[in-house]
């Protein structure tokens, strides 16, 4: 595989998702969300910043939001490449994909779950990321980005997987400059309009491996000392919190892209023993997987 190969694979995933007919209202809504993100990237962002020249970097921390955005971003990169050579006299097989690795930045700020660290390492290889990792805990987020920009002077814009329902996300726009207390760059935020259900739907349909913590009831992953499984997903007495806990994505899971036959398992990475100890030390209850939760307002209930 190569970046070109995985970009084409991501294109095939999103295209196949967009071609789905007569599924759930979540699928219909997610298709609209994908189309808008695709328009932002292809019709606006890639016209202003060349994704093949190092002007754009991708901020990545292994979370579900940046993973789903990465899939759509790579899909668009493939489409942009195909479009750019459409008028060429040579056919696709004689054209070289202009990037070998995707410029990516990860700020290793809080104490991170080992499982997430492992997932970042795995996906760095899976998606051909040229991953800058800031030294752990050494500095503030703005300073860490400043250090990254000092080392990567071509970078003008950074893709961020923030959504309107995230803290401080409500009023953001797809393209905007950083605030004055941050190093100067353009924030590219083409996932803002996605709901939690849209993220799970495409991610589970993609058949791509997810970070194993999500299977243990995590719905958003912060630091080791500040994140626990989401209390709204706890099994057992009082589990319903007023509503039945159900899996809204059985169809996506059973019909995931590239699956040979119906199979109800979700590909996830192994949770490290150390993380299992941490999770079970304070609470040994069982939890439904993170994708059983679709209410945006409850997504961060496991984070303090
Ligand atoms: P989850 O909420 O499930 O943990 P996530 O980490 O992708 O998923 P957020 O925590 O809401 O989502 O972060 C929003 C976005 O900000 C990420 O998708 C990523 O693009 C960027 N981001 C957040 N933290 C970091 C970090 N430490 N390094 C690089 N980028 C980051």
UniProtKB/TrEMBL annotation:
Keyword Electron transport recorded: no
An MF annotation (GO) of this entry: FMN adenylyltransferase activity
InterPro entries, per database record: PAPS_reduct_dom, Rossmann-like_a/b/a_fold
Catalytic activity: FMN + ATP + H(+) = FAD + diphosphate
Highest taxon listed in the record's lineage: Eukaryota
Sequence ranges assigned to domain Phosphoadenosine phosphosulphate reductase in this UniProt record: 56-229
GO annotation terms (biological process): FAD biosynthetic process
Coiled coil is among the record's keywords: no
Pathway: Cofactor biosynthesis; FAD biosynthesis; FAD from FMN: step 1/1
Class of the enzyme per the UniProt entry, highest EC level: transferase
Protein name: FAD synthase
Native source organism of the sequence: Lachancea fermentati (Zygosaccharomyces fermentati)
